[in-house]
Amino acid sequence: MATPIGNLEDITLRALRVLREQVSAIACEDTRQTQKLLDHFEIRKPLLSYHEHNEASRAAEIVERLGAGDSIAIVTDAGTPLISDPGYRVVVAAIDAGLTVVPLPGASAVLTALAASGLAVDQFRFIGFLPPKSHARRQAFEALRSEPATVIAYESPHRILESLHDLSGVLGARRVVLGRELTKLHEEFVRGTAAEIHAQLAARPSIKGEMTLVISGATEERVEGDPKEIVARLEQQGLDRMEAIKAAAKQMGLPKRAVYQAVAEPDSNSPGKRRG
After folding, report:
1. 276 pLDDT exceeds 60?
2. Range of 240's domain?
3. pLDDT (0 to 100) of residue 26
4. Do residues 208 and 231 both lie within one domain?
5. Would residue 118 count as lying in a domain?
6. Cβ pair 109, 139 in contact under 8 A
């Protein structure tokens, strides 16, 4: 069951009804955090804690209760369970036991950041939290060098500058959008290259809040060069002439007509009728 990622009004009517009327207990990542949500909506239900350190043992307990007829809601501190949060082992154990798993959709920082990013949404790839160490982080970015889809990642405020530095060093001038404190009072979107966003954040006295990075895909990088050479290279890769022109225009950030005219223009060194 998804819960708000900041603004409490983002909980669904269905979620409130299920919590009030249909479950006998709520399994939650942090009982203190979930209790605040329940208190706000005046809901009284017993809480059962589960987190990354006890999820394996808790999964068996939850499945046993479900098998005995209980209905238990699974929530995390914010957003949709299992998305870079605990819950996977519980869901798998319930499925393996032949029990019914009912998803209740709602808030997600992944989709919230993507929707407001202004980057391509036809394909996207969520990679969870970035690795904490620079070497592993740079390897992760290197693996995304040819990824055509928009990439979404989570990062903590105390590592965001290091991550932006590594992102800039590996992927260069990709378009990046940083969503901070999504749906909360101080919600903010910072746009630019990784280096530009790094400079903006580094100039602040402090950096706070939950961070979601949205990174443009490889196909959105602008390629510099001669349109004829780029079209010829794409044709060698198997595209026909018009497909190659369209792809080159997208890669170069130019109108398709401009690339077509450049390709159609004869070379100055090609043999032909001489003047004068």
Report:
1. no
2. 227-264
3. 97
4. no
5. yes
6. no
Distance CA 247, CA 229 (A): 13
Q: What are the structure tokens assigned to 122, written together?
A: 């036809």
One domain for residues 50 and 65: yes
pLDDT band at 221 (very low <50, low <70, confident <90, very high): low
Mean pLDDT of 127-143: 95
- Separation of alpha carbons 196 and 97, rounded Å: 51
pTM of the model: 0.77
In a domain, 214, yes or no: yes
Q: Are residues 121 and 210 in the same domain?
A: yes
DSSP string, 14-74: HHHHHHHHT-SEEEES-HHHHHHHHHHTT----EEE--TTTHHHHHHHHHHHHHTT--EEE
Q: How many domains does the chain have?
A: 3
Predicted local confidence at residue 255, as pLDDT: 84
Residue 256, both tokens: 């398709």
